[in-house]
Structures are given as structure tokens and as C-alpha cells.
């Protein structure tokens, strides 16, 4: 699975509607509104790189209210749950 983190700049008066429209796209697993340099952060998970272009460039960037995007591809995922699971293998 390929994960992309998409930083989204939106029209300020359309943040809730834009966030929901992004969340409704196939391949988008989560959308966060946040403070800081960007308005929304979307997590996109797809099986093939070509699907990133379809979801991000083909759909997400064309949603009303989206002004610009900045996409980052994740190489690895780290979480406490993953670490705990790795160290608990065979310790029953």
C-alpha cells in the first residue's frame, strides 16, 4: 500500500465543505483540519503510484475550494502499536 500525505491550502470560507468532499474520495482515508501553514491534511492510500495521480491530481486538486496541494510520499510507517507488536511476538 502506498501512502501519501497531502497538505491542502483551501479557500478559508470553504474549509468544512472542501474537507468533506476530499474525505468522500476513494483512496482518501482521513482528512484533518489543522492550524498552521496548511488548512487540511489528507491521507491517501492506494495500491499503485498511478492511482496517486488519479486521486490527487485528477480529483482532489479539482475540488471547489482547493487552492493548492503539496504531496509527500511515505516510505515507512512507525507507531507505538507496531513497535509493541514487534516486541511481543512469541511472548505468550
From TrEMBL:
<dbReference type="Pfam" id="PF01037">
    <property type="entry name" value="AsnC_trans_reg"/>
</dbReference>
<dbReference type="GO" id="GO:0005829">
    <property type="term" value="C:cytosol"/>
</dbReference>
<dbReference type="InterPro" id="IPR011008">
    <property type="entry name" value="Dimeric_a/b-barrel"/>
</dbReference>
<dbReference type="GO" id="GO:0043200">
    <property type="term" value="P:response to amino acid"/>
</dbReference>
<dbReference type="InterPro" id="IPR019887">
    <property type="entry name" value="Tscrpt_reg_AsnC/Lrp_C"/>
</dbReference>
<protein>
    <submittedName>
        <fullName>AsnC-like helix-turn-helix protein</fullName>
    </submittedName>
</protein>
<feature type="domain" description="Transcription regulator AsnC/Lrp ligand binding">
    <location>
        <begin position="6"/>
        <end position="76"/>
    </location>
</feature>
<dbReference type="GO" id="GO:0043565">
    <property type="term" value="F:sequence-specific DNA binding"/>
</dbReference>
Amino acid at each position: 500500500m502506498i501512502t501519501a500525505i497531502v497538505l491542502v491550502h483551501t479557500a478559508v470560507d470553504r474549509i468544512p465543505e472542501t474537507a468533506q468532499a476530499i474525505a468522500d474520495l476513494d483512496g482518501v482515508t482521513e482528512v484533518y483540519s489543522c492550524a498552521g501553514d496548511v488548512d487540511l491534511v489528507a491521507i491517501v492510500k492506494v495500491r499503485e503510484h498511478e492511482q496517486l495521480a488519479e486521486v490527487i491530481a485528477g480529483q482532489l486538486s479539482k475540488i471547489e475550494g482547493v487552492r493548492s496541494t503539496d504531496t509527500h510520499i511515505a516510505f515507512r510507517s512507525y507507531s507505538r502499536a507496531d513497535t509493541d507488536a514487534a516486541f511481543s511476538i512469541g511472548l505468550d
